[in-house]
């Protein structure tokens, strides 16, 4: 058994044992649609979320309450949440929203979200481009947001962006990621999602970054958030699974990216993660066929092909089977 160190205490390191179950955080309606050039109506967003719920997805980041001047695609968050709240409550699905400041928190609470997410970066340049302030200023801004959310009994997730590289600064040291992750965790975020915003990571870099973070934040409170720009996202998910990470963010059909990360493509497709995990005997609770149907729905609405290799393979198999009957 290999051992790692968590705040001075020796902890067993799960290098070989994979989790029995993973939690999928579906971020397509937020991370995906925030970066699609075509505006999608609140009604279509709501239909997408309801289809995801039907497929068994139980955690959905449905909206963001950021400045509409910065991200106009997310301006209709309140309307989306109002439409999907009944289906989410019926199915015990957690609805979350991204929040950058007190104004965003107030809007999110008024929309009855179950959780919020605050978002910092491991890179100073990205922090300034994305939220117009330094890393220190962002953490100071989140302090009252987190305190008020806790008072309202709303759980808080924390994001760290640029964990495996920055579009403006290049390489980011694992220790820089770990410092920001630790600060968010200590402020009261129950989970830290580690974002490979530009999708440039590799499995060995993923392992080094996770090991640095695990010195400050328990592994069960870390989540992987991989974008697939360089085609490494599934390999990075596997590397993270082997380090004991059991929560992954993904976006149906692989839609989206980040408006402040030029050239980055969407998140790893949820279909690909579900296929990867279920194929290794790791339960996701998600019906792959229905999930692919939700992906086909939003791809049609956006007028583009799915980015999911698994969805394409499934569709090909369906066509071949239909042709032989
Ligand atoms: P600012 O311009 O410095 O802030 O922006 P401000 O306080 O001066 O506000 C400017 C205007 O926006 C004002 O309106 C405010 O009222 C309004 P005006 O007086 O000019 O008419 N405003 C708001 N309106 C609605 N909701 C709000 C809000 N706040 C201010 N919450 C700010 C600072 C943080 C607001 C801005 O930079 C912003 O909204 N940034 C968001 C950028 C964003 O959403 N990026 C994508 C999400 S991060 C991501 O995708 C990465 C992630 O997926 C992980 C990964 O992949 O790495 C999470
Ligand atoms: Mg992202």
UniProtKB/TrEMBL annotation:
InterPro entries: Aldolase_TIM, HMGL, PYR_CT. GO terms for molecular function: hydroxymethylglutaryl-CoA lyase activity; metal ion binding. It comes from the Bacteria. It is an enzyme of class 4 (lyase). Pathway: Metabolic intermediate metabolism; (S)-3-hydroxy-3-methylglutaryl-CoA degradation; acetoacetate from (S)-3-hydroxy-3-methylglutaryl-CoA: step 1/1. Keywords: Lyase, Metal-binding. Residues 22-292 form the Pyruvate carboxyltransferase domain. Its EC number is 4.1.3.4. The keyword Metal-binding applies. The keyword Lyase applies. Transmembrane segments: none annotated. Pfam families: HMGL-like (PF00682). GO terms for biological process: ketone body biosynthetic process; L-leucine catabolic process. Belongs to the HMG-CoA lyase family. This is hydroxymethylglutaryl-CoA lyase. It comes from Caballeronia arationis.
